[in-house]
Every structure is written in C-alpha cells, then in structure tokens.
Amino acid sequence: MRRCKAAAVLGLALGFGVITGSVAGAGVAAKKAPPKPLLEACKVVTQTDAATFLNLSVTQSGSGTSCDYAGAGGVAAVTVRITSLSPANVAFTKKQIKASKGATFPKLGDAAAESITPGGGGDIQILKGKVLLDVSARKSDSTGKVIDLDPTAFATFAKAALAKMTSGGSSSGSSSSSASGSAAGAQLDPCQLLTPQEVATVLGGTVTADKVGPQDCEFKSNGGKVIHLAVSIGTSKYETDAKNFTGTAVSGIGDAAFLAQPNGIVEFKKGQNVIAMQTSSSLISPDDVTGLENLAKAAAARA
Predict the structure, then answer these.
(1) What is the distance between the alpha carbons of residues 144 and 131, in angstroms, rounded to a whole number?
(2) Binning pLDDT at 50, 70 and 90, where does residue 105 land?
(3) Cβ neighbours of residue 286 closer than 8 Å, sequence gap 6 or more
(4) Taking each helix axis from N to C terminus, what angle separates 151-166 and 47-54, rounded to the nearest 10 degrees?
(5) I need a surface site. Which of 71, 74, 130, 233 has the fewest CB within 10 A?
(6) In which band, very low, low, confident or very high, does the pLDDT at 26 lie, cut at 50, 70 and 90?
(7) 41-166 adopts what CATH topology?
C-alpha cells in the first residue's frame, strides 16, 4: 500500500498525473477554433452577387482585399474593401463607426453604419474583430441615371457579404447525412456542373475553370470572356431573381428557368437547388442565347 502511494506521489511530482479507470480529459470536448476570416474581396462579394444586387451585367476587376464591379457605362458599381486592423486601430475605428451620422446596426458585426446619399450612392462599414469590411454601391436605371439605394436591401446585401467573410467562405448551415439529391438541396460543386470544353463552345478559345467560392465557379477563356456559375439552396431566390430581372421563362431546363437577355443571365431551379449562369457581356445574337441555354441544360442534367 505504501509503495502504491509512493508511486502516485512520484508520478504527480514528475507531471505524469494519476489515471484511475478513465482517460484524463475524457468527456471534455475540444474547443473548435473559429474559421479564419475570408480576406478575398471578390469571393466575399462575387460577380453574381453584384449583378443580382444591381440588376444588370457587371465586369469584375481587382484582387486580394480589393474588388470592383462596374455596370455598362460605368455608372452602376459595387466596391468591396477588406482591411485588417492593428489592435490599436480597432477601438478607434469602432468609435468612429458608432459616431457615424448614418444608420447604425447594433447587431451587425461589432459595429456597423450605413450612409446613403440621395441621388448618389451608399456605403456600409462593418467591423468584425480586427477586420473592417467596407461595401459601397451605386445603382442606375436603364438610361444610366443614378437611382436611390434601398437602405434595407443594401444592408441585407452587406450582411450576406459579412457572413461569407466571417465563415471563412464556407456555406452556412449543415446538411443531413440522410438527405441527398437536388430534391433535398444537396451541396453541388459548381465547377463539376459544366466542363471547360462545353463552355468553350460558347466562349471560344481555351477555357479554364476556377472555383472562386464554395458555391461559385468562373469559366474563363484565353480571350478574356467569362461565364460565372453560382449555386444556392432555396427556391425563394429563384422567384425573387425572376421578378427582379424581369426574366423570360425558358422551357426544358430543370424544373423552371428564365432568361434575362440584357443581363446575360440564365437561371434555373432543380429541386431545392438554384443555379445561375451569367456571361461577362450581354447576350446579343440568337446564337448567344442558344449557346447559354444549352449550357444550362447540361448543368441541369448534372444537378
């Protein structure tokens, strides 16, 4: 008995600890580290995100922590900036945002404020941890005249960008292991819905596929033309987009599909999945329209 006690004391003294019938630390779940923020601006707000918000086709420029989207004529635009702050600047920035004269959002990030200029544009700054997300936008009508931003819609747009940034780019929610297929809203790999060879029949040249987000794929030709494909779950998005883009119904693609020719968009739903495809320029000829619709049919067959 004395030898056992001595061994126990020696074990404690050497830092081994004494295990009595169970593994040390058993039953204590390891704390999961939060995801690192996504600091790539063109993935936080994708080309499809910007086009949907502005309700027109956009071109993309920028990389890293800075991204710009511009509509035809350069009037409508979305700009995204992401800044990593030093600890000393976090408190100062938070104070500045809260002192803003624009609308503030106490439940959005650690501090958030929106500023909209009538007949101009708008800007939202959101501080989360040590990262500042700055989204600015300007909308225009079909004649190129600047129109006022809807404060609620703009805030929702920025909130979606924040969700992507803070989740590290991963999609929110979890999928059940018993649910599968489009009817259950399965997670699809956007770059697997089309092949570069198929897209080349529309864009011409040699095409490469680049997964620019968890649910976004960019097919780009060596001539600079682009088709952006985005996947989302929830058919309410389809109904909203069909109304916002005043799309024309197209038969034979998924469960339902629409074409927004001036915007270069074909979007369809299949089960709970919604797939949107957008060209880098508006569809001009009937051949352009037919080509994009054929790609949508190929993607629907794999969705």
Answers:
(1) 34
(2) confident
(3) none
(4) 170
(5) 74
(6) very low
(7) Protein Transport Mog1p; Chain A (3.40.1000)
pTM over 0.85: no
Sign of CA dihedral 36, 40, 41, 42: negative
Residue 134, helix vs strand vs coil? strand
Structure tokens at 63: 């990389």
113 and 124 in contact (C-beta within 8 Å)?
Answer: yes
Q: Which amino acid is at 236?
A: S
**Domain made up of 186-302: CATH architecture:** 3-Layer(aba) Sandwich (3.40)
Torsion of CA 283, 284, 288, 290, to 10 degrees: 90
- Tokens describing residue 57: 């086709």
- What residues does each domain of the chain span? 41-166, 186-302
In CATH terms, are 41-166 and 186-302 the same topology? yes
